[in-house]
Fold this sequence. Notes:
This protein is mainly α. Helix content is 72%, strand content 0%.
Amino acid sequence: MARYGKEHKDITRRRIIDAASKRFKQDGFDGSGVATLMSDAGLTNGAFYAHFESKDDLVATVVHEELSRQAASFSDLKLGRDGLQDFVREYLSTKHRDHPDVGCPSAALLDEIGRSSAAAKQAYTVGAKAILKEIASRLSPHDPDAAQGTALNLFTMMIGTMQLARALSDRRLSKTVLENGAQSALAMIAADQRT
């Protein structure tokens, strides 16, 4: 039997993480069994345990990867508040609402992370702090610590708005929730600038 090199193992692990990320955000942690996740990755069930100790290990890894990716995505935005305003508009859009499988892990999984293992909660905490740091540094580049409260309020409002918009069956009302949330978030950014 041929052994695969480290590069192949890394690629396979990445396939599992990427497939699990989409499936978890679509169906939740409990709605995604190992067999389904491995099928999504185009792999056999037996390959799972060569990469992860358990499903909880995979959940914590996915949470870490997703939030790290989201924090890193801030570098693609315009500098300062302009980039933050673009982030708000993209986040609170119908496109993001309609595609949770490729969107923000917080909006898709926050309630599940709260019921998950300590490792998943720790991974989320580290990632959330990194995102809050990115938001605060755009609100107040010279003193990000002074903007931590506003950053926290902004991020939590955006997550809650997206969760509510996704929960509503009335699409017009859902769109109104998103539009009002975006207006409130942009007003929060503008108000913080004046203080």
